[in-house]
Design a protein that fits this description.
Layout lengths: L18 H17 L3 H17 L4 H25 L3 H6 L4 E4 L5 E3 H27 L2 H10 L4 H12 L1 H17 L10 H32 L18 H21 L12
Antiparallel strand pairs: 1-2
Helix pairs in contact: 1-5, 1-10, 2-5, 3-5, 6-7, 8-9
Length: about 280
């Protein structure tokens, strides 16, 4: 069973791209999605993101847990938007088409739903690209890519270690959970949701202590090798850009520019179908 958000080279052309290329794509794609409020552009970006996710052969089991968390967070976020700003859509688009009334304060309008649809689609655009980037990029190559664009190698190395040990922390969590289950503590779907949350919370402290032991071992090993003594360092996993990398970077820049031109074609980044 593949581990959550772990790198696994499946030999696709996306895996074979340089880390710099994937980093440029991820940054431009995310920035464009955040700026854009044109549902036409965002819909096209959703299709492209899903296609890339499928082409990368990313197993859904690798991202299922995080995806569920993001989906729950998104639902809470959308509810909070309506709870604290139920008329933001009407103020934004300048019109009001009432669908139904909950209370005098909370009136559901087409404009509000349209605005929240944009927020929802933004997440759908970004989340698959985040997952694809994480599971198709070797952490060491990712660190080399960050250093190549000007970020200090100490920070790059720390981030690479964090990504590299996500699968290990997941493995430790599974071992501790199995040990608890062997002692008669029910943590499967047979137990109630409250009991599962309470029993899972008891795993946090052993998991923290295990992680701290690992941090101590890594810190001592890096100190013995004089890590951080020099201002620069070389990277074993660093790779030069190839023809495919230049093509992907050029295509990404073109797509981003076209998306932004369409977005701002009416003088505003908000597409308004109500006028």
């Amino acid at each position: 069973m593949p581990k959550m958000l772990s790198y696994n080279n499946k030999g696709t052309w996306i895996h074979n791209l340089c880390g710099v290329t994937k980093l440029v794509f991820f940054l431009l794609w995310t920035i464009t999605a955040m700026i854009c409020y044109d549902i036409r552009v965002l819909s096209v970006m959703v299709v492209i993101s899903v296609i890339i996710f499928i082409v990368s052969k990313t197993s859904f089991s690798q991202v299922k847990g995080v995806f569920t968390f993001v989906l729950v967070f998104l639902c809470i976020n959308l509810f909070a938007i309506f709870l604290f700003a139920p008329t933001h859509g009407t103020e934004l688009y300048g019109t009001e088409h009432v669908l139904f009334t909950i209370t005098k304060k909370y009136v559901v309008t087409a404009e509000q739903l349209f605005y929240e649809a944009h927020v929802f689609i933004k997440y759908i655009v970004i989340v698959p690209s985040v997952f694809t980037f994480l599971v198709t990029t070797n952490p060491s190559e990712f660190a080399a890519s960050l250093n190549r664009v000007g970020i200090g190698y100490k920070g790059c190395y720390a981030l690479a270690l964090a990504l590299r040990y996500i699968p290990d922390v997941q493995s430790d969590f599974t071992k501790i959970r199995n040990s608890q289950a062997a002692r008669g503590i029910e943590m499967s779907k047979k137990a109630s949701l409250i009991n599962r949350i309470r029993h899972t919370a008891t795993i946090i402290f052993p998991l923290i202590f295990t992680s701290m032991d690992r941090i101590d071992v890594i810190s001592n090993a890096m100190e013995l090798r004089c890590f951080g003594k020099n201002k620069k360092r070389t990277w074993y996993m660093g790779r030069p850009l190839k023809a495919a990398d230049y093509i992907v970077i050029a295509a990404t820049v073109i797509l981003s520019v076209v998306a932004l031109l369409i977005t701002f074609s009416n003088g505003s980044r908000f597409y308004n179908p109500f006028i």
